[in-house]
Batch of 2 targets.
Target 1
Amino acid sequence: MFDISIITIGDEICIGQIVNTNAAWIAGKVTSIGANVKLHSTIGDNRDSLIDELNRLLPISDLVILTGGLGPTHDDITKNVLCEYFGDDLVLHNDTLKYLKKIFSLRGYHLTERNMEQAYLPSICLVLKNEVGTAPGMLFEEKGKFVISLPGVPAEMKYIMNDSVIPFIKRKIAERNDNVVLYKNLQTTGIPESKLADMIGEPKEFLGDGSLAFLPSYRGVKLRIGVSGKNFETAREKLKKIEKVIFEKAGGNIFSADDESLVSKVGSLLSERNLTVAVAESCTGGLLGAEFTSISGSSVYFSGGVIAYSNEIKEKILNVSKDSLVQFGAVSEQVAFELARNVRDIFKTDVGIGITGIAGPTGGTEEKPVGTVFIGLAFGDNVKVKKFVFSTEREVNRERAVGTALTMLLNELQNNE
Amino acid sequence: MFDISIITIGDEICIGQIVNTNAAWIAGKVTSIGANVKLHSTIGDNRDSLIDELNRLLPISDLVILTGGLGPTHDDITKNVLCEYFGDDLVLHNDTLKYLKKIFSLRGYHLTERNMEQAYLPSICLVLKNEVGTAPGMLFEEKGKFVISLPGVPAEMKYIMNDSVIPFIKRKIAERNDNVVLYKNLQTTGIPESKLADMIGEPKEFLGDGSLAFLPSYRGVKLRIGVSGKNFETAREKLKKIEKVIFEKAGGNIFSADDESLVSKVGSLLSERNLTVAVAESCTGGLLGAEFTSISGSSVYFSGGVIAYSNEIKEKILNVSKDSLVQFGAVSEQVAFELARNVRDIFKTDVGIGITGIAGPTGGTEEKPVGTVFIGLAFGDNVKVKKFVFSTEREVNRERAVGTALTMLLNELQNNE
């Protein structure tokens, strides 16, 4: 196996001001091409910590990927510490200088001394070009082991990963004829983890030396199959066999075997069938609309919606009847029904979704506790409303309402073919 | 200093399927009470890796906090590995058993053998109660050093941290008379990092042995001041001095010195002045409404809005004139103006915000490239529109449009007192 460790460098991550999304992105990316992630480590902007981590991780890894600490200010120490670690010196890298001059002149800026220093790079490293920022990546080799240093800015890190690092790792895995590790995700929705586990039964009976993990989220439970094999072909064969068994047992709940997200799957189905959708959101306040429109090209099937946070707007813009609001309350089956039906009619779409609920943490009653959410789905002439009681947490209730509304629409699309 | 290391355990995090939010949360929490975070480490569900990490981190830390691997299934190994590490055995913990029986009977479930095993805990550990789940936390001491093991489920981890771990760390810092580390954030918005740096000048002149970091995000640049002192009082004194200097230099751009978020600050100002707001969103598709409504109690000032993703909806629901749409296009100053003004009039609010733009990655033209966004702000009788060209990335453009709209409203609220 080609073992990779990841070191994230930065005080702001170490003290918890920023969530470390870089490590997850890098780990996901290298895993998808058959490498094995040993561990991630996060340290502050500190020379000793970085030297310690390199000393510890290089012996147990084929490649150590560093991210962060390559900027132009005083707290960016990575380049100098790597020079020290490999006993090397900084030299002027002409291509980088040319590139810096070019982009600074394009932007109409003068190239300052501070920025010019970014063109001085360790003499023994292979420079990995960065066309979206000013700090290039660096690749070092020592006794058949590798260290790659990348900027911490996510867009720059991703550019160099895609442009240089991923092809490099693929080549190394192929050259060494290393064992590869492969994963595949089967995505389910609308079924609790425990029920899904019962349907699938004892995994040992069909997994061989593979693995199966259940990963629940607000958009459903993901089943992750993992296998290793002496090459891609044998690994893929193993994956296929396990996938087949799981489809036999729980295929009805799997909506995607190719990492398509729930909202993207729903969008594809709407688009295929030339259907359009509009939303009327109370407690989710725009979150469902934001999720639909996170997909580029969603304007084909998503017309828009109304964020009806006050009763007045529900009445005035969405024609919810005053009687329903007074008699049943804004959080009620009747109001969810009218929200879904009326937004469909007003926006002249095929589908209307209405969401009303008590997100919390305040506003709950004995009869309607925090977490009570009614979701209405108007599909053609048919309007359905379902009631849910999710949790006591505001963000959880809003996220689960969005996930559940998408699942209801997915099921309707699958059942009305 | 009281040094803490954090180990996150779980294959799904190691291979990048889940972003490690637990480590950031724990690090932020312990930093806020004066502890010093040495590093975070993330490993798979693997005995050897966990033993290696404990061997390495315990000597350099006063406390190692583990999260994950305490569930009831076969891949949850933490409890057994800790037993092995400390040469201990599992014994029945009566209070935990009582608690498990109680919650299972409340939920109407039978307590299975698998769940009962969660009441068997290492004999030498102090059990930290978990009233939001089934796996309690565990505290071990060895030669004046501590290991705390917590569940990986965020709500459970947070419960035990707040209920047991934070008071424990506070007590230890006080007992040992340890040096404390304190941080304070000053939040700015509407000013680029480099300009802010110029205003503040050379930090060495006023920092002493403190530190200053610039942390940019889509909601502004955060200035993080860090100091250490022999006790809380001296550290707070140092913080106050540095804060005063920064306020003198850049106070006009600082909207919060107490970690209040931009949307929450805007909400407080609206609320104080009895003003209401409505939004008309095209390219952001509900994201601004979702941000306003992420704050509990926002219904006082946020009435709702329209997600006008299609031209038809802009015309029909928001009365945008056909002429404007045809003559200037949906992404234009004129349409942003009408969106803001009309949503304010239709929703009868004091403030209206209209956003229209090309989020990308497709849909750009030479005249209006991807990233072009017009934001209209109707405030009382006054309507302003600003044009921006953000980036080529869809998510970045949507996030920056939301952040910029909030900044425009903040400035208007601050200038119209």
Target 2
Amino acid sequence: MDAIAYVREICAAARDSAAHLALTQGRQRDEALISCAAALRAQSDHIQAANRKDLLAAADANISKAMMERLTITDKSIQAMAGAIEQIARQVDPVGVTIAAYDRPNGLRIEKRRTPIGVVCVIYESRPNVTADAAALCLKSGNACVLRGGKEAINSNLAISAAMHEGLAAAGLPAGAITVIDSTDRAVVPALCKAQGLIDLIVPRGGESLIRAVVEDALVPVIKHYMGNCHVYLHADADEKRSVDIVLNAKCQRPGVCNAMETLLVDSAAAQRLLPVVAKKLADAGVELRGCPRSRQLVPDMKPATEDDWRTEYLDLILAVRVVDGLDEAIAHINKYGSGHTDAIVTRDIEAARRFAAAVDSASIMVNASTRFSDGGEYGLGAEVGISTDKLHARGPMGAEDLTTYKWIVTGQGHVRG
Amino acid sequence: MDAIAYVREICAAARDSAAHLALTQGRQRDEALISCAAALRAQSDHIQAANRKDLLAAADANISKAMMERLTITDKSIQAMAGAIEQIARQVDPVGVTIAAYDRPNGLRIEKRRTPIGVVCVIYESRPNVTADAAALCLKSGNACVLRGGKEAINSNLAISAAMHEGLAAAGLPAGAITVIDSTDRAVVPALCKAQGLIDLIVPRGGESLIRAVVEDALVPVIKHYMGNCHVYLHADADEKRSVDIVLNAKCQRPGVCNAMETLLVDSAAAQRLLPVVAKKLADAGVELRGCPRSRQLVPDMKPATEDDWRTEYLDLILAVRVVDGLDEAIAHINKYGSGHTDAIVTRDIEAARRFAAAVDSASIMVNASTRFSDGGEYGLGAEVGISTDKLHARGPMGAEDLTTYKWIVTGQGHVRG
């Protein structure tokens, strides 16, 4: 079957399941989630056997060590997936909530009520836990999902969805609620992007080139983030210990992820006090520093930074450093070069924190906290289906509530318009 | 200057103004709105003179009578525009509202706070009042707007925006907050669609072909509705008077608009009781009826309906009529043929109303009320920037709150991730 016909067939089945899910009660979906978590644990050996197939093929294909790590499923990762699903099951049902309700002067009752979106498609790369997280968040919010993972994880993803189908069946829900695409045909992604009327939302997760390709092709609405060029700004009034702790954590705790810091901004009023201390700690941690001329006067070991450095997401132990004259120059730098993902200020000054939070045009603003907290789990969402640096519908980490829409329910007593 | 360079220049100015607006207080934006309304009234003669230029050109171009009507500005329409702006000014400020706030177990404070989107572009056809409505809703919500109206209304639109610039100046706000595109170059629309990073949202309003062209071209997120194929379903338990009143109003009060009824569904259990009465009233009002075989048995005068009739938005005094066997068949018909805009049920049965509202997958569900109420003004939004049949971000009539996004503000005391 060609990719377009295949996509139409699976999406039509997903649509039917979405219509079924839209009429379920939250309790039934939560029971399904609990059963899914139990099935994942029960099928741990089977899932790990499928994962070994993927790992062997990946080893043959000489895939990078980082990708092998992301691909590997262990007992611990099964427990983590199941635990996240159980946490999602315990959350309040986002569906059916009344967002607003009021009477109009003519007596019409207007209600805005939260409903599932319908069919949500997630396109992602090699991490198999995305399969479990995305499926669970979609199920929680009453949506059917169509999941297209990377080809190197296909056996793992199918084994995870097979386990979750047992959970669906145990709660009397249709298998079409969770579909992992069982095809590595590259034509499937463009076909998904053009499936208007069948898919309501696409969330692409992965490298910038994957996401750009999806946006170029998409007729279906897309929510995405291209990259995380995150900043930490040490304000004139920043505490030294907090500055060191936050900068080290934001850069070094996990440098390969989107919420790691990529540029450090230091206020000129604090640079002499803070920059040499912070730079020493970063250098000790193996971070390569690339600085502006003023930061290199204070820390001569730094390499010079170029204009490109301000725009680069290194995803590595490299950091751009710039001395700025005051809060507004820091804000201007972030809004010019940043990616709207996550930006932090370290300060004791309440007015500086307020202005930074208001003026920096990013999904997450951290005040005296590491950029690494920008995450669905850390925000209490249980997991995340993706992170949005778009401004439409959802911004930042997307949880179950972000997979809902609403409808207007208007009740009259024979009302007609005059 | 070519269209792409022109669009980049005006959008860059709009972005700067958006950054300014994002830091304003609601009071200042409301003062600007009140001044805009006053300036529209004060410049009524000037605006109507500009409008006469457009009307003369339109008459030369042999434009349809309906379009001439939509294009015409009178004293009354100036008052209506100014009144809508004042109503918007009196609404609660949607910006700065805390949507959710909570402490995490580690003491991190998480807040989701409503903010403006940034730069909103509206692409529309010949109705000049859209200029005032869209500009006012964008200003209320702290957004800069870029407005591209139909070429036949360009003098009217520029005169309206000139008046509103006086209002902005009186409140100390930049003129770049409201930009009417002063070019009829057809290459401008594709350039707007591709202005990623400069425009945050495009709302196209108009015929289906305009909207499809925008969606095909767009790299910027789009919110839209293609059409309104709206239904009224007379349930087995429908009251006769309400049925007649609602059907007549939904079809005849203003047949050329998107919230007019296009298909009438009558339950087989009520068809004999209701359909002849309703059909007689519709025929008396000059409505051409096109019925399924069972409805033609009850009302032999009807023309036969074809499959195409179930999908057609007539925007005229024509109505498709179908007898259905029960609530679920009505729901299935609407979800198959409808456009997700507005669908109504007439019933005395609370369970039927509940199930219809839950299962019909449309932006607005009317219970014992005419579809014609599906409108930003009727919902109390003051005006609407558009109507969405999409499910992302906004659904149904879009008011000022729908032109906001949010940011996460996370406050710690030196928190780092373990």
